[in-house]
Amino acid sequence: MTNPVSSSASQSFWHRLLDAKITRRGALGTAAATAAAATLPVTFSGAQAAANNGGPVGAGATQADPRTYPPFRPIEPTGADTLTLPERYRFQVVAPWGEVFTEGGREIGFNHDYVGFFPIDLLEGGSSSTDALLTINHEYVNALFVGGNTKERTREQIDAEMKAVGVSVVRVRREGGGWKIVPDPRNRRIDALTEIELTGPARGSAAVKGATTVRGTVGNCSGGQTPWGTLLTCEENVDGYTKAWAGSGYEAMHQGWVTEIDPFDPAWTPRKRTGMGRFRHENAAVTVAKDGRVVVYMGDDMQDSCIYKFISRGKYAPGNRAANRDLLADGDLYVANFGNGSWVLLDYDRNKKLQEARGSDGKALFGGQADVLADARASALAVGGTPVDRPEDIEIHPRTGEVYASLTNNSKHGNYFGQIIKFREHGDDWTAQTFLWDVFAVGGPQSGFASPDNLVFDPYGNLWMVTDNSDLSSNPTKAFHGNNAMFFFPTEGPNRGRAYRFAVGPVDAEMTGPVFSPDGRTLFVSIQHPGEDSESLDKLRSNFAAKPGSNVPRPTLVAIEGFPGWVKA
Question: Mean of the pLDDT values across residues 206-216?
Answer without folding.
Answer: 98
